[in-house]
Amino acid sequence: MLIIRSVIAILCLCYCCLQTLLEEEAHEEAIFLQIAQLLLLALSGGVKGIRGESDWQCKYSTGFSSTVRPHSVSILEFGAKGDGKTVNTLAFQNAIFYLRSFADKGGAQLYVPPGRWLTGSFNLTSHLTLFLERDAIILASQDSSHWPVIEPLPSYGRGIDLPGGRHRSLINGYELKDVVITGDNGTIDGQGAVWWEWFNSHSLNYSRPHLVELESSNDILISNLTFLNSPAWNIHTFYCSNVQVQNITVRAPSDSPYTNGIVPDSCSDVCIEACHISVGYDAIALKSGWDEYGIAYNRSTSNVHINRVNLQSSAGSALAFGSEMSGGISIIYAEQLHIFNSFSGIKIKTTRGRGGYIKDIVISDIVMENVHVALELTGQCEDHPDDHFDPDAFPIISGITLKNMIGSNITLAGNLIGIHQAPFTAICLSDISLSVTSEPSSSWVCSDVFGFSKSVFPEPCSDLQAPYSNSSLCLSLLYPTGHAEAL
Ligand SMILES: *[C@@H]1O[C@H](CO)[C@@H](O)[C@H](O)[C@H]1NC(C)=O
Ligand SMILES: *[C@@H]1O[C@H](CO)[C@@H](O)[C@H](O)[C@H]1NC(C)=O
Ligand SMILES: *[C@@H]1O[C@H](CO)[C@@H](O)[C@H](O)[C@H]1NC(C)=O
Ligand SMILES: *[C@@H]1O[C@H](CO)[C@@H](O)[C@H](O)[C@H]1NC(C)=O
Ligand SMILES: *[C@@H]1O[C@H](CO)[C@@H](O)[C@H](O)[C@H]1NC(C)=O
Ligand SMILES: *[C@@H]1O[C@H](CO)[C@@H](O)[C@H](O)[C@H]1NC(C)=O
Ligand SMILES: *[C@@H]1O[C@H](CO)[C@@H](O)[C@H](O)[C@H]1NC(C)=O
Ligand SMILES: *[C@@H]1O[C@H](CO)[C@@H](O)[C@H](O)[C@H]1NC(C)=O
Fold first, then answer.
1. Greater confidence, 417 or 13?
2. Ligand 2 centroid, distance to 246 Cα (angstroms)
3. What pLDDT, on a 0 to 100 scale, did the predictor assign at position 58?
4. Is residue 481 pLDDT above 90, yes or no?
5. In this structure, are residues 310 and 277 in contact, taking their beta carbons and an 8 Å threshold?
6. Whose CA is nearest to atom 8 of ligand 2?
7. What is the residue with the minimal CA distance to atom 7 of ligand 7?
């Protein structure tokens, strides 16, 4: 499978190159160079394909008592009606309340049979498995009064859309342990169209809710489900550890405003694997708090492994870091990414006032198709929670490694704009070959960034051309002792 995927990707790229060749003779030389580079990459095994499905990388599962619970009840036993009209919030709340008594008996499962189960916001409990059968659809209510308003997160100081409070998410967990949200490809549908309309017409009273939000919780597994049409983000884990997200599909329309896929926020030990995410804004976004609130809360996102994911972001980035990163983001491994039809491929976002850091990031084995900007680094995300940020709180961006990447139909290879007072350093690029539609000579834009490169086509700006032989910073990150095994 891995070889077939690589070969197809490469054949595809060569086909595109040849097509362009027929159209634009002027680029002939560059294109031949590129084909040669691609073949070289392929031969050297530089571009690894998608591994077999049995080859799971998420290995944190020690905290789970079991995914098969000794007790199971159906939501039907609590008077729920799967007709798509009856509001079942109370049935979900009562069922979860009842299942709390099984916490010290190995936990319990709440079974959701096929049907359309309309509900407002409800809470989970510890040692619980929420299981959605095939054709079971949890439908979010479109009545905003079914989504209670709660305080903003301490590390944000306000809601994401508006100052002040925010609507509680559809499915919530607070200070939980050992929670599994899974199924046989059941669906959680946020019916977000009303929220997008309220957002676009400025008629929200509070910030929009997410589909699933877990806060201060450990040992979380989310798998084998489809998430549709979230009002805002799909899965938001805040200050959690040991979070695994496996084999899920996430979709929201391309024009849905700021719909994000998976957002690990001030979390450690996170593994995201074999997921298909296609949303309006960032498909996977790693965050850790906003300006003075995030600096004071001081909880980083670290030890995250992302592996074998298909990502599409219409207006944002497939894989994003920040822009809220005031608690720091570090030790992130992302590999085997397929990024397509996106505005930006990989993006690091920050600004002065954020403080914090983004460092020790290794992203490898990436295939990009139809992406406007392959790599973006920006120090100019000038949105602040309020006017009380410290303009002298400069973020540190350093130790960002990108290797083994091929791309076709890319407009701009890189747009890298650092911060003058705090340049981005140790940006390490190797074995990258992009078929760009802009002039190769202008396809990298850089300022206040410094780094190393080898075998990068088109040739990056001079500030990124320090020789790799000098790049001890890059290499030490690739093989940090102990980390690869731990992940
Ligand atoms: C849900 O959990 C929150 C936070 O713990 C709590 O304030 C709220 O009352 C809970 N709601 C229900 C219906 O249990
Ligand atoms: C992934 O989920 C689908 C249902 O959505 C299921 O049919 C398939 O077996 C799952 N794959 C793995 C490897 O768990
Ligand atoms: C899972 O369900 C979604 C939505 O119903 C569907 O689009 C997708 O094809 C299903 N996946 C599998 C593996 O059955
Ligand atoms: C905002 O508040 C007004 C006044 O209470 C209410 O009529 C309206 O439905 C609210 N809008 C939303 C989106 O909740
Ligand atoms: C997903 O579903 C497949 C097929 O039923 C099952 O073998 C696998 O254990 C499930 N994975 C997770 C992580 O729930
Ligand atoms: C943030 O926490 C780290 C340890 O996790 C500590 O070393 C650092 O001093 C803290 N920073 C602030 C500003 O409190
Ligand atoms: C190239 O990518 C752009 C998006 O950046 C897309 O609009 C366009 O259709 C793609 N062209 C081809 C030939 O796929
Ligand atoms: C490479 O490292 C050597 C010795 O550490 C140093 O003298 C030289 O200036 C460096 N070259 C570049 C281009 O950074």
1. 417
2. 9
3. 74
4. no
5. yes
6. 224
7. 370
Say how far apart CA 393 and CA 384 lie, in whole Å. Answer: 12
Please, which residues bridge with residue 65 across strands?
none
Distance 294 CA to ligand 6 centre (A): 12
CA of 185, nearest ligand number = 2
Residues 6+ apart with CB under 8 A from 141: 87, 89, 118, 119, 120, 147, 191
Residue whose CA lies nearest to ligand 5 atom number 14 = 223
CATH superfamily of 62-236+255-261: Single-stranded right-handed beta-helix, Pectin lyase-like (2.160.20.10)
How far, in Å, CA of 265 to CA of 140, rounded? 23
The class level of CATH for 282-487 reads mainly beta
**Residue owning tokens 């002792």:** 481
For ligand 2, whether the C-beta of 83 sits within 6 Å is: no
Domain 62-236+255-261 shares a fold with domain 282-487: yes
> Mean pLDDT over residues 223-242, rounded?
98
The domain spans of the chain are 2-43, 62-236+255-261, 282-487
Ligand positioned closest to the Cα atom of 55:
2
Query: At residue 326, does pLDDT exceed 90?
Result: yes
Q: In the structure encoding, which two tokens stand for residue 467, read together? A: 């020789």
Task: Give long-range contacts, CB 8 A cutoff, 24+ apart: 458-461.
Answer: 458/30, 458/413, 458/434, 460/413, 460/414, 460/429, 461/414, 461/416
Distant-in-sequence, close-in-space partners of 43: CB < 8 Å, separation ≥ 6: none
**Residue 286 to residues 61, 150, 321, 324, Cα–Cα distance (Å):** 21, 23, 5, 8
